[in-house]
């Protein structure tokens, strides 16, 4: 291996480590745990997919469960419900809310404690799959989801769209982050004697960040890659166009039953849809 190749490998390893550390730092922060523990709203896309593809009495594996946002809806009609999250503090928050249910602190790319074909449905919502710090771990996670599903079982998952350049204010987490940014801007501008409406200005800043972080990255033009989250720039998350994501899922033995935008029921657009949801069936 040449010196240049070794340097490139070292740089890639550093990037992967930093991505993993950034995700861990964000989701282990007490304020993040507190927010996710109190946040119990499903998106219309999730409501549609869960009602359509997770029938009553299913055996459900809920990955990236966070503070239990999806637990109540999925568990109330399930025959078996298991929640998994990488962050132990999130798992403890779930156990305190739902002491009668089964939760585990596990890496979603290693589900070895579950037998082959032991679930009818696997859910990985809110783009949790994109938080895995390497493509190899992502592919291993998808393969593990296929392994623990029975034949004909359904995998419901979402992934970021790298081509999105505009976003909206209609999701609670997005509103929360934009308001935090607006508060900082308002304080700065008031100190400087500038009287403006900070929330629209904050949202303009968010979109400007998005353009800067994406248009200058190969991932935007290739349609796949790791890109900074414009609302949380210290996090770098995976993103893939829906066409590329579907090929990735197909390689693990899934066929697409349904694909909808994260802003469902609005029609998705290439430049205006933050992420896409998929209902996939194990073939």
Automatic annotation (TrEMBL):
Record keywords, A-Z: Membrane, Methyltransferase, Transferase, Transmembrane, Transmembrane helix
Q: Which InterPro entries match?
A: Methyltransf_11, SAM-dependent_MTases_sf
Domain Methyltransferase type spans what residues? 61-157
Q: Which domain of life is it from?
A: Bacteria
- Molecular functions per Gene Ontology: S-adenosylmethionine-dependent methyltransferase activity
Biological process terms from the Gene Ontology for this record are: methylation
Residue ranges of coiled coil? none
Record-annotated membrane-spanning stretches: 189-208
Looking up Pfam families in the UniProt record yields: Methyltransf_11
Q: Which PANTHER family match?
A: METHYLTRANSFERASE, RHODANESE DOMAIN-CONTAINING PROTEIN
Protein name (database record): Class I SAM-dependent methyltransferase
